[in-house]
Every structure is written in C-alpha cells, then in structure tokens.
Amino acid sequence: METIQALPLLGINEQNIDKYAVRLSRVLPGYNPTTVFFNSNGETRDELNNHMFGYRWPGDRRTHRIHGEIVLQFLQIDKFSSSYVFAGAYHVGSVIEKGSGFTIYDWHGQEISDYHAFIGRLVVNYPRKPGYTGMDFRLNKVENAKSFMESMTVESVEASPLTARPFPGYANVRINHAELVSAVNNSQWRTALDNVQGVYLQTDTSNGWHYVGSAYSQQGEHIGILSRWEEYAGGDHTGGNKLLQAIPNASFHIEQYFEYSILEIFDMHAKSQDIINREHWWMKTLSSLHRETDLHPHGYNN
C-alpha cells in the first residue's frame, strides 16, 4: 500500500516548512502523556499542556528549546512505539515561570484553529533514528525537514477523536486502569473485546500480585471479555472478588496500580469448560492462588 506523508496533509510544504518545529513527547517512567490526553478534563489537560510545553524541568540543567514560529505537538502512543497522535499546532509563546524550577512556553491562547480538526484524529508513524534522544526538531534544518517530510507517514485519520489508543491486537494489550476506562468506552476496543471469550490477567504493580480471570458464555448468554472488564472499569473496580475488596482503599489502589492484559482468547463458540480449564492452568502457572498456608502468598485468586 502506498504511504501518505503526514506533513503535506497538514498543509506543510517546502516553501513554508522552515516556520515549523516538531515536538515528540514520549512515554516517561511514571507519566504517560497519551493516557492523560485520552482521559483529560480541564485540570488534567492544563497539566498535560504544561508537560508538552516544558522548557526546563526541576532538577534538569538543560533547556528544551523550540525553534520555529509554530510547533506541531505529537504524543507517543506507547513506550517503544513509533506511532504518535497529533495533539495540535501552536504559536510558540514566551517562556514563563511555573515555580520550583519549572518553566514552560506559555501555551494559553496559542493554539492555531486551522489544525484543530486533526487533534486526536491523526495518527502518524515516525521511526526515530539512533543518536539524538531529544524531543525537539527544528524544521529549518535541511536534514530534519527532509526526514520529517519523507518519513513521517499517516497511519490513520479517524472519523472522530480517539478516546483510547488504537487497539493493538489481543497479544499486545497491557493497559492501566485509566486506559481500561477509556477502552471500554471506545468503539474499536469494545468490538474487539466483545467478540472473544478468554482468560485475562490483572497485575498489581505495587507488589507483583496477580489475579487471573476468565470470561465465557453459558446458557445462551453472550459474555465476552468486554463484559468482565466493564465491571472493573466501574463500581469499586473489584468485580466482586473478596481479596480485591480487602485491599485497603481498594478503588483508589486499583486505579493507581493495576494493569490489565489478555492471556488467551477463544471464539464465541468455545466451550466454557475449556476456558475454565485454561484459567486454572494460568492460575497455577502464575502462582496467583492465595493460600493461607503459603509462606509468602502473592495472588488474589481464592
């Protein structure tokens, strides 16, 4: 399939490219800007914009300069991924102090409305070259202009702004609780999760404990993984599991520390007992069964 270059889609060409800069905000330890982007309200969006327009962070002696009149903001969709979602085009404002050694480019009122329709809808691919590890690229440099014009390509332009990262395939699902909430409200994820039965995993990243669960249909019901994950997204997030309910301040703890992944999938015609057998196999394999006789229990299955 012939690729489509992303910058010309945004109206950028050889005659005007030197006015632009690109900032690629990456997933950082403890902070995923794309997760915030998909789950932002007024307060968290301000926090995200402050992150996207950082000039100097506390404890960082370097400055992160944006060279150009207009900056194109892209957010890395997943760690180690070369896919980015477009987060807007802005005039480059003045540098202002935010306190505690944190300074930013003032982004208030700087968004350029001509590009607004692409925010959250344009997903691009840009493979980073070895060497430079920064986030800022000045497009008035010939080599940068050539690289972005040729190598930043369109992955998709969605009909409406994304509410979750694109579904990565069942084998590549690993999401935190905020991403789970986005996923069960996103049409692409809902379709994928509703059309398979399966065995899934919850991991408590604060202590390494696991919970293995399953989703299967019986007595004519249609029960896919979506049905179970909707239970974890809402309510107290425990799905009725007593060991999860016993966690101090369980809802908050789960929101902060739990990750969700898929171990095995089955089509909707698979027998429930086959799925249950695989669920028990995974419980034993991952030692997720909680036995009081264990010297160091480390599972939430009972």
Automatic annotation (TrEMBL):
CDD domains: GIY-YIG_unchar_1
InterPro entries, per the entry: GIY-YIG_endonuc_sf
Name recorded for this polypeptide: GIY-YIG nuclease family protein
Organism: Bifidobacterium fermentum
